[in-house]
Amino acid sequence: MWKLFCGIGVALLGVVAFMFSLQYGSLLTASGNDPAIRDRYNFISAMFGYGGLAMLIVGVGVTIWAIRRMNAASRRGE
After folding, report:
1. Which tens digits make up the pLDDT trace of 6-19?
2. What average pLDDT does this structure show over 51-74?
3. What is the pTM of this model?
4. How far apart are CA 14 and CA 16, in angstroms?
5. pLDDT at 50
6. Helix H segments across 1-78?
7. What local confidence, expressed as pLDDT, does residue 31 receive?
8. Helices 35-76 and 2-27 sit at what angle, rounded to 10 degrees?
9. Contacts by residues 57-62 (CB-CB < 8 Å, ≥ 24 positions apart)
C-alpha cells in the first residue's frame, strides 16, 4: 500500500513542478526583461518542465505497478 501512496505522491509532485515551469514560462513574455534574466527564466522553466514530466511519468508508472502487484496478491489470497 505504501508503494501506491509513494507513486501518487511522486506524480503529484510532478504536476506541481510542471506548474512552476508554466509560471516561469509566463515570466519569459513579460516586457522589459533583459536577455540575462530571460535566459535564466528559460533555464528554470525547462528544468522544472522536464523534471516535472519525468516525475509524472515515474509516479504513474509506480502507481500502476503497485496496483497490479496488489491485485496479483489479492488473487493469490495473501
Report:
1. 999 999 999 999 99
2. 94
3. 0.82
4. 5
5. 95
6. 2-27, 35-76
7. 61
8. 160
9. 57/14, 58/10, 58/14, 59/7, 59/8, 59/9, 59/10, 59/11, 59/12, 59/13, 59/14, 60/7, 60/11, 61/7, 62/3, 62/6, 62/7, 62/10
